């Protein structure tokens, strides 16, 4: 999924944390709620400005960040 049209970073919004475009909903909030067992349907009710594609974009963005992570050993 191409999440780059849905996830943005702006130093003026939440200190530059990745958020859903057009909102102040951070990616980490979506992931935390999912990890707590909140369903996509419940998230959409909790945050009416979200779309299902936003939730999928948050997951894809996180997977991309982890995939690019480099372990540095000393």
Automatic annotation (TrEMBL):
A Pfam family per the record: DUF433
InterPro entries for this protein: DUF433, Homeodomain-like_sf, WH-like_DNA-bd_sf
Domain of life: Bacteria
Entry-linked Gene3D superfamilies: Winged helix-like DNA-binding domain superfamily/Winged helix DNA-binding domain
Name used for this protein in its record: Uncharacterized conserved protein, DUF433 family
Organism: Desulfurobacterium pacificum
Lineage: Bacteria, Pseudomonadati, Aquificota, Aquificia, Desulfurobacteriales
């Amino acid at each position: 999924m191409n999440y780059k049209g849905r996830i943005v970073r702006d130093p003026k919004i939440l200190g530059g944390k990745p958020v859903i475009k057009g909102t102040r909903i951070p990616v980490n909030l979506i992931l935390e709620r999912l990890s707590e067992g909140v369903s996509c349907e419940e998230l959409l009710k909790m945050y009416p400005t979200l779309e299902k594609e936003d939730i999928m974009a948050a997951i894809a963005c996180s997977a991309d960040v982890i995939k690019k992570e480099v372990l540095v050993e000393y």
